[in-house]
Each structure stands twice: as structure tokens, then as C-alpha cells.
């Protein structure tokens, strides 16, 4: 995949970056599951989300340092820097969602639990699909395009669940302030899949630009 020492190091760092973002998302899953089941220890998972986000940010900085030190051709470095930024935004969104729950404590009715859980599952699946697409980056462009298509499919599924969840929410008898509060959480979770799709699109652009 990568040829010289610096490029191999960047490749390793990208894998580390993925691992840290994946950790943040899994801790967010733990947090939301605990919160929906009224487990008072949910805040412990929030601390883990923050820790993983900080570690992801440090790895992103290490990627940038290697790129500025001369990994890859100058024409390609900006693409890799931008790709790392797109990936890091997913960890940031996990932290934003965790903060919303811990700081504002939305009162979520039980009839929305399954919707929210499924929405988060699809959002995380979109990120995992993006990782699979990146691992295929240096294969045939059609293979990469197909892999990116899976990211888009998960994002579309998340969009549908988001729409259905908000529809169910606003058809309920909850007061408007509570509805708006819960909607913010739903939209924050859905943003994870949106960001994964953005990263997939950036990867697609990189593949198109590569030499034939």
C-alpha cells in the first residue's frame, strides 16, 4: 500500500486513528445503552468517549506531522490531511453527542428506545463501512466505488430511521420543549453517518485523482 518509511508510518497511524475513533463510537454506544436503561453509571462511558476522542486527536496530529515531514508527493499530502480531518470529525461528533446527554439529560420515553438504538447502530455501521472502503483504496477504482456505496447505503438507512424517529416523536403527547430536546439528540446521532458519508466522498475524490 505504502512504499517508503514515512508513508508506511502514515498508513500505520491511519489505522491507529480508525481504532481510536471506533473506540469513541463504541463507548458512545455503551453510554446511550446505559442511559436508555436508566443506569446511573452512564457517565463512566462518557469519560471514555472523551479519552478516545483526545487520543484520536493526538494520532491525527501525528499523521499531519509525518505528512508535513515529507510523506507522499506534495500533490497528495493535502488530500491525506483532509481525509484525517474528516475521520477526526466523527470522533468529535461522538464527544458532542456524549456531552449533550451528560450535560442536558434529555428525558427519553421508552417508546423511542429501539429507534435510537437502531439509529446509532446504523451510524456506527457507516463508519465501519468507510474503514473497509479505505482499506481497498489502492485496488481497482470500481472495487473502491462499490465499497463507498455501502457507506452511502448505511447513511441512507440512518436517514430513514432519523425521519421515522422524529415523526414518531412529534406525533406523541410530549410537550414541545421535550420534543425539541430529544430531536437534538436524534440529529446528533444521525450526524455520525453523515460525517462517514462525507469521508467516503473525500476518499472517492482521492481515488479519482490518483494516476492511472
Give your account of this protein's structure.
With 212 residues, the chain is an all-alpha fold. The chain has a single domain, classed as Phosphate transport system protein phou homolog 2, domain 2 (Methane Monooxygenase Hydroxylase, Chain G, domain 1, Up-down Bundle), CATH 1.20.58. It is built from six helices and no strands. Helix 1 packs antiparallel against helix 2, helix 1 packs parallel to helix 3 and helix 2 packs antiparallel against helix 3. The chain is globular.
List the helices and strands and how they pair.
Layout: H1 5-36, H2 42-68, H3 74-104, H4 113-135, H5 141-171, H6 176-209
Helix pairs in contact: 1-2, 1-3, 1-4, 2-3, 3-6, 4-5, 4-6, 5-6
Question: What keyword list fits this structure?
Answer:
0% strand, globular, Methane Monooxygenase Hydroxylase, Chain G, domain 1, 212 residues, 84% helix, single chain, mainly alpha, 6 helices
Radius of gyration, CA atoms, in whole angstroms: 18 Å
Which structural category fits the helices and strands? Answer: mainly alpha
Q: Topology as H/E string?
A: HHHHHH
Residue-averaged pLDDT: 90
How much of the residues is beta strand, in percent? under 5%
CATH class: Mainly Alpha
Give a short account of the largest sheet.
none
Q: What share of the residues lie within helices?
A: over 70%
Amino acid at each position: 500500500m505504502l512504499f517508503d518509511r514515512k508513508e508506511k508510518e502514515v498508513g500505520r497511524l491511519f489505522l491507529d486513528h480508525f481504532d481510536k475513533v471506533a473506540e469513541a463510537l463504541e463507548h458512545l454506544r455503551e453510554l446511550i445503552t446505559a442511559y436508555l436503561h436508566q443506569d446511573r453509571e452512564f457517565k463512566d462511558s462518557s469519560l471514555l468517549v472523551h479519552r478516545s476522542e483526545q487520543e484520536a486527536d493526538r494520532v491525527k496530529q501525528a499523521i499531519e506531522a509525518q505528512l508535513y515531514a515529507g510523506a507522499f508527493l506534495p500533490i497528495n499530502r493535502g488530500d491525506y490531511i483532509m481525509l484525517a480531518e474528516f475521520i477526526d470529525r466523527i470522533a468529535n461528533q461522538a464527544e458532542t453527542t456524549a456531552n449533550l446527554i451528560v450535560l442536558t439529560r434529555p428525558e427519553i420515553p421508552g417508546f423511542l428506545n429501539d429507534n435510537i438504538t437502531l439509529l446509532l447502530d446504523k451510524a456506527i455501521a457507516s463508519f465501519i463501512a468507510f474503514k473497509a472502503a479505505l482499506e481497498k483504496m489502492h485496488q481497482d477504482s470500481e472495487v473502491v466505488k462499490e465499497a463507498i456505496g455501502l457507506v452511502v447505503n448505511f447513511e441512507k438507512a440512518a436517514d430513514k430511521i432519523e425521519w421515522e424517529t422524529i415523526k414518531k416523536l412529534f406525533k406523541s403527547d410530549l410537550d414541545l420543549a421535550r420534543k425539541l430536546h430529544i430531536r437534538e439528540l436524534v440529529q446528533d446521532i444521525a450526524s455520525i453517518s453523515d460525517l462517514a458519508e462525507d469521508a467516503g466522498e473525500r476518499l472517492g475524490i482521492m481515488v479519482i485523482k490518483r494516476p492511472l
